[in-house]
Amino acid sequence: MRTQFHWFAFSFLAFASPIQGEDKPPPAKPSPEHVEFFEKKIRPVLVKHCYSCHSAEAKKVKGELRLDTREAVLKGGSSGPLLVPGDPAKSLLIQAVRHADPSLKMPPDVKLKSEEIADLEAWVKMGAPDPRDGASGAKKIDFAKAKEFWSFRPVARPEVLKAGAANPIDNFIRAKLDAKGLKPAPPADKRALIRRATFDLTGLPPTPEEIEAFLKDNSPEAFAKVVDRLLASPAYGERWGRHWLDLVRYADTAGDNSDYPIPQIFRYRNWVIEAFNRDLPYDEFVRQQLAGDLLPSQNEADRQAKLIATGYLANTKRFGSYEDERYPWYLTYEDQIDNLGRTFLGLTINCARCHDHKFDPISQHDYYALYGFFSSTRYPRPGIELDKVQRDFVPLVEPEDVEIIELTRQANTTRLQKDVEIQERLKSIAEKQLETAKRLGEKEMIAEATKELEQAVAKLKVVKKERDEFAKQPLPFETAYAVAEGKTEGKKKVGNACVQIKGDPERLGPEVPRRFPSILGGQTLPAATMGSGRLELANWIVDAKNPLTARVMVNRVWQYHFGKGIVRTASNFGILGQPPTHPELLDYLAARFVEDKWSMKSMHRLIMLSRTYQQSSRDDEAGTKIDVANEYLWRFDKHRLDAESIRDSLLAAAGNLDRSPGGAHPFPAMSTWNFTQHHPFKAVYETNKRSVYVMAQRFQRHPFFALFDGADTNASTDRRLTSTTPLQALYLMNDPFVHAQAKKFAERVCGEGKDDAARINRAYVLLFGRTPTADEVTTATDYLAKVSDKLRAGGTPMEQLPAKAWESLARALFLSNEFVYLD
């Protein structure tokens, strides 16, 4: 039967095959992923801890060892070769940084952090990829020459090529196919097309009724009507909101050592979903996330929504355990700049933290010019090991009401603290009385003083508990995990940042005025700016003259529809990224995006109504010989559903999917929080709602999404990888969640069909959007009979045989390729 090639069979083949990502020496030219790892994890460590003694800038190179060029690292020093690529245990570098041998320590005075050592070990294990050339000196950035690079040129709408198609996309694609001698695949059949479109726009399978209506509609606008219906569905925002949450590494916990829960962050998740559903123009979508608190509002609801939008900034990862000046806010700002660069601009700006970017025209001053916008912003603190109280969350009530409430709370807090201080002094007095009594040796005095001390200690515990419990009480109004303008007094001020020499926050260089990167215009803040400047930054990012923002976003939309972008490296439009396969098409789409007022839904319509999108995935021997990777889109690429779509499809098939929007998660009461780095928060909350509403934790990934290649909540995920492992097949065969859905699915089809033939037909329509072939009906009927015989032999009661057999068949159908792959 057509579904006989089961996914689980292919999965088990992987068990005997080389594991994906198996460690091996890298090619002569490091991959973009290797270069990114080196620039983000390795070079900063070398610069900070090693260059002072082992580089051209050292007064005297120690041990005849330099670490500032690739060639020098490979050569080693007077002690011999430094590295054995692929083998950390045999590498002198790793032995030295581990400090296991007292005579071999590097750096000699202080041991590297455990995560830095782990990064070096991982680097050596992957073959020590190193993009540096032989030159170690600083190079001045030639911005005039840099602007000639394709991604930094202004977007200019190209003339639509004349290739006979009504949709301009098809003309650009067809021109490239003709030039390469390729022929496009025929159109996809209607069943495949509606399934493709429905999963693309909603992440859910089409219902049998929707399929039937499309098959019966023979009008030229039939597919356009399907697209419009899907774009109007609330499920659209849930699907495309999930894509955005991947990019901004959304999580419901903080990511610090204790990984404190953030009960309020769901509001930002829901804001993203709602913004996609109402087709909020992309430029405004960006503007509100960066500076919603600084934008004018139409009413109180609009004001609150814009505050919640800045959850994008608040969502940045937290670090450390202290709540005072020792808290490492600089790490949060670094994470923010890294995500902003990748998500909005397609640039690896973080590579300029310690030095000028080695490949792209981004200077270290550019980096700290951006740093000042975020160091001038007040970020909320969700609670950490040594300060378990939420601080600086943004109230969702009128500011005047907040002031009254906060003054009352401050008064109560002050009173309770004074009670503690008074009782501590009475602790102190009782101790002195006891010491005096012991010195005099009077037993009655000792007994009386001991009693008074015990009473004082007990009273102190009571008043401390009262103070601490009051501090943990939730505020008497709702709050958002959002940002606000920084303080204008105290140590943390609004203003420019200083260069951190070699990325060290303790070694400050010159102050850098806040501005946009020079390569993108270098716009500076007006001299009279009093606040953080985030609104100006947002406006520069979405300025139509910025050559990156529109290009980056339309490329992402294209990637989510076709499985790969016109630029394959969707978050890296720099030198180390891949150039566009269709540069004229990319610029056409970027220009149209702006002309259409940054409408996401208009871009979907343009792409999906093209013949390129609607062609089949049929292979062709001649096409494969010319373009085996389908770089030029002569056919549609088959691809597996992502983790959320697989889970939601299982629930939908069983009739168990709760389509209502998700709300807050059932976190434990805030008053009970006592999480530490040794006992961090960990939880998995199961729900029958859509997967986008499942609680996402930074430290611990939900088992289903970890297994089926869900997004990494610690880093921006611009493309889901697809692995095939035996564990995935075992999960679909054995997990209680799958068994529960199989049971409900079996009940559903048995209730909707009068006999096994009708039930098999219904099962195929629900799962695959088509009726079974005669052979498939025969095979499924035989399967039910054989399973029933086996169950009967195993002692299953007769009345339970039909249901149990159907549950088994349901699990087998869930495992088929056709259920989890899109044509």
From TrEMBL:
Keywords: Coiled coil. InterPro entries: Cyt_c-like_dom_sf, Cyt_c_Planctomycete-type, DUF1549, DUF1553. Residues 168-378 form the DUF1549 domain. It comes from the Bacteria. Residues 533-783 form the DUF1553 domain. Residues 420-473 form a coiled coil. It holds the Pfam family PSD1. The keyword Coiled coil applies. The keyword Phosphoprotein does not apply. Residues 50-109 form the Cytochrome C Planctomycete-type domain. This is DUF1553 domain-containing protein.
